[in-house]
Design goal:
The chain has about 375 residues and is α/β, with parallel strands linked by helices. Helices cover about 55% and strands about 15% of the residues. The strands form 3 sheets. The protein has a 6-stranded parallel beta sheet, with helices on both faces. The chain has a 3-stranded mixed beta sheet with strand order 4-3-10. Strands 9-11-12 form a 3-stranded mixed beta sheet, covered by helices on one side. The longest helix is centred in the middle third of the chain and has 26 residues, at about 205-230. The relative contact order is 0.09.
Length: about 375
């Protein structure tokens, strides 16, 4: 079996690419980073440091790479069995035309074997969004054929993969935590579902998507924003601050109450899941900087993302949300000149004020009680700086 994986960054190599290669699948990485592409082609292998209670190094072998802008990528799509991504929402849209061109060539060549595409992104139903973009580039005359043989499989992914440590010179060096979770919607595959250890199949994907989004992503981000305010550099330092830990845990309990109401999760099991997540944040082997986690605040304040979606859930089920409100307020105190979204958010905030800015990006009613409470929480956080 052959797989083409878009994104040879730390998540691509340390998580999805590793699981595919470990399953005996021939993996070709597609990326624009020539240094990484060349290193993968020279070595055809790389090491992954896995850290938890102990530290182990595992070797990933029989891999290759190609520049994702090369015309050869289209030929690979026409011949491969599985296409996966770990590129981020913006790049996902950029590669959609390449994927469409590859599907076009595949169909014109008469290749009727199934191709399954899985976007492994921090997005809600990211593969469905990729499909929509791909079909915009695909000739309408080919839509029916593509529907027959190309599966667009949504997934939920969870693994903390920090950037390379400062001073690291090996372009293929990657460190990941022990915990990983890759859950796929088994109803969306075409043909036989591949047997990949570490890939869990479900027919109720949204329950797992929202569990991860409302717990890991929500908690991670609030830890980062409160950590920035407290002067901490890393997620570990932040979560070991008792005041921050209490706020983050309370926010995760608020979002967890939504999950329990919506999906009938067992409350005891979900409480244990929250504790596991908090423990992952404190992993002593991972240097996960708060500035990195806090980046792209506009995306993270959008209606379907990790702050606003759980807040809306608390409104739907009439549940408490004070700590989620505080987390949203903290986003407006996050500043990073190197992050275009942070700069844009602060520029609009300075010109229009918090209420208008929050309403614009979140979809919340500017006159709602929630927006007013975020403004009050912001003022309280600002006064405490």
């Amino acid at each position: 079996m052959k797989a083409l994986h878009f994104g040879a960054g730390n998540i691509g190599r340390g998580f999805i690419g590793k699981l595919l290669a470990d399953a005996g699948i021939k993996v070709t990485f597609a990326d624009v980073n020539e240094t990484v592409v060349n290193a993968l082609n020279e070595r055809n292998e790389y090491d992954v440091k896995i850290v938890g209670e102990k530290c182990v190094v595992e070797k990933v072998t029989h891999v290759s790479a190609i520049n994702s802008t090369s015309p050869e990528v289209i030929k690979l799509i026409a011949e491969t069995d599985l296409l996966t991504t770990a590129v981020g929402p913006t790049v996902l849209n950029i590669i959609s035309k390449t994927v469409a061109d590859g599907i076009t060539l595949r169909l014109k060549n008469g290749n009727k074997t199934p191709l399954n595409i899985i976007a492994c992104e921090n997005m809600v139903r990211g593969t469905s969004q990729l499909k929509e973009a791909v079909f915009k580039h695909l000739d309408k005359a080919l839509h029916a054929q593509a529907e027959e043989t190309v599966g667009f499989v949504d997934s939920a992914v969870d693994r903390i993969v920090p950037p390379a440590e400062k001073g690291e010179t090996d372009p293929l060096a990657v460190t990941v935590e022990t915990f990983s979770e890759w859950i796929v919607d088994q109803t969306q595959f075409k043909g036989e579902i591949p047997d990949i250890a570490g890939m869990e199949k479900t027919d109720n994907l949204m329950a797992f998507v929202e569990r991860k989004l409302f717990t890991l992503n929500t908690g991670h981000l609030i830890t980062a924003y409160l950590g920035v305010l407290a002067g901490h550099e890393t997620i570990k330092d932040s979560i070991e601050d008792d005041a921050i830990r209490a706020d983050v845990k309370a926010a995760m309990q608020e979002s967890g109450a939504v999950l329990i109401s919506r999906y009938a999760f067992d409350p005891t099991a979900h409480a244990a899941y929250i504790e596991k997540i908090l423990g992952r944040f404190a992993n002593p082997y991972l240097r996960d900087e708060v500035d990195r986690v806090g980046r792209q605040p506009i995306r993270k304040l959008s209606p379907q993302d990790r702050l606003i979606k759980p807040l809306n859930g608390t409104l739907e089920y009439n549940l408490p949300n004070d700590h989620l409100i505080k987390g949203i307020a903290a986003a407006f105190l996050y500043k990073c000149d190197e992050d275009p979204q942070a700069v844009e958010l602060q520029a609009m905030f300075a010109k229009e004020g918090l209420k208008a800015t929050l309403a614009h990006y979140s979809g919340l009613d500017i006159n709602s009680d929630q927006v007013a409470r975020v403004e009050t929480a912001y003022q309280d956080l600002k006064a405490a700086e």
